[in-house]
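Consider the following input, taken from an annotated entry for Transcription antitermination protein NusB (Oceanobacillus picturae).
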Amino acid sequence: MNRHAAREKAFQILFQLDINDNEPKQAIAEFLESEENDAFLTLLVEGVASHKTELDEIISENLENWSLQRIASVEKTIIRIAAFEMKYLEDIPVNVSINEAVELANTYGDDKSGKFINGVLSKINK
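Applying the prediction step yields:
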């Protein structure tokens, strides 16, 4: 599985975890069923889940005229993944993390999601 596909599946799993309080390993296994697990997918899901509080603080500090509670779950999940990559995965260029997040937002969010996510992540990157 390529990294783009892994990010997309990680987004779907983390979105479910935000709604249902499962363990990350269990959620990955249930989501993938017979598909082979991917190391990058596991790293993203477990990393975001274990650093969720810290990531939410980083996101909250970089929001203008918004609170974390007001952000829709789709956008919040996408921003968490990108923020995790930016903070903890040094082998991924920041612009790649931002571009991938914007692509996910354009696929799963509304018309303004990509622009909003780009703005928040650019502020986090400063």
